Amino acid sequence: MNSELVWGASFFSGSLAQLVAKLSGLPAVVLLLVLGLVVGQAGLHLVQPETLGAGLEPLVGLLVSLVLFDGGLNLRLAGKQLQRTVIQLVLVRLVLGLGGGALLAHELAGLSCPLAWVFGAIALATGPTVITPMVRQMRLQGDLAQALEAEGLILEPTAAVLALLLLQLALGDLPSWQNVASLLLLRLGGGALLGALAGWLLVLVLERLPKDAAGLQLQVSLGMLFLVVAGTQTLLPEAGFPAAVMVGVVVGLRLDEQASQLDELIAQLAQLAITVLFPLLAADLSWAELSPLGWGGVACVFCLMLYRWVVVQCAGIGLSYLRWRDKLMLSWVAPRGIVTAAVASLFALELEAAGVQGAGALKGLVFLTILLTVVVQGFSAPLLAQKLGLVEPEAPSEAALDAAASFTAGLQQQPGGEQIGTLKAAE
């Protein structure tokens, strides 16, 4: 299969999944993943991502950075309570989530200790590529939705950098854990700093462009974003993701009105990136990589899903405004997405090239985590949100608002309509 056909089949599969999700009301992320499995190595072998060669990795990185940039534009943590919730959740997950994921992977799935730590880091990433469409489709209440999206935006780039450093430690390229900690701070801080500078420069440019030049704003924004991500990746490996988030945050905070106009275009492109990337990366998974894990792998993933409840309970200490139903919802929504899949695929290649045993098991366990968390939580989370009363009321459509306006205008034109209008004005 040539590369053009691979991309065409991936785009078609993703768009078909989105269409079915729109018509049926089923979770779009679930359908994207399932359809990717059907057309890929685990199913009909219609899409074979390996034919894309070395060009797949950088393209995936740029498209993921687009999704992170879109998330950064929308990151509005208004209020100290929400900010404190996100900070505590992220910090507790970094400690307890990393250690718990590594322990479960070693004891239940049989990964060696070095690879178990790598898995624990990869599994930290609950990215916006899955979280954002899920919470929007279920209409989750604002504060909870923002907390989940912010957690993913912070932890996804953090997990990618940490997993790479732990992989280098496992391969012997780093001498000790102290080097992991220092390099993690360097790459996260360096990426965030370069992203903030790029965002500031982008704001200066966008402020001088005509407000009606939306197309030009989009082109300039994407050009700056991809340049800073690629440049940061060259200087500091895996630091391009925190840079992408920071560019979006700075632009979103500095340009309120223009950022809103820009975000409409960026959001459409980000959704397109999710639509094509999810089936493409899912198509790379084969049953041969899942079957050796057996029930131990399945038990590991389900225990990891349940273990998040413990993590959220610890993160919620001192947050009295979080009700039990809020904590339960936060505990259950933690699907893994595109960055997790991309990092696992890349690491498996590096481990195989280095002759390390267990590379296939690591990749299989990561994809099993993606598969089970997306499917189980994708179907159950909307029902749980409704049962707990955490769903925002559906906004009336434009057609309904127009009909109501026309009806009101008709009443006012009828005999006595003037009195009706007068009474309403008096009220």
How would you name the oligomeric state of the polypeptide chains in this document? single chain
User: In this structure, how is the largest beta sheet organized?
Assistant: none
Instruction: State mean pLDDT (0 to 100 scale).
Output: 81
Report the end-to-end length measured between terminal Cα atoms: 69 Å
**Global shape:** globular
**Share of helical residues:** over 70%
- Could you tell me the number of beta strands? 0
Number of domains: 2
- Structural category: mainly alpha
- Overall radius of gyration: 23 Å
Count, helices: 18
Strand content: under 5%
CATH architecture call of the largest domain: Up-down Bundle
List segments where confidence is low: pLDDT < 50 over at least 5 consecutive residues: 417-427
CATH topology annotation of the largest domain: Na+/H+ antiporter like fold
Which descriptors apply to this entry?
427 residues, mainly alpha, Na+/H+ antiporter like fold, 2 domains, 18 helices, 78% helix, disordered C terminus
In a few lines, what is going on in this structure?
With 427 residues, this protein is an all-alpha fold. The chain has 18 helices and no strands. The chain has two domains: 58-271 and 290-357 and 375-395, Up-down Bundle (Na+/H+ antiporter like fold); 400-427, no CATH class.
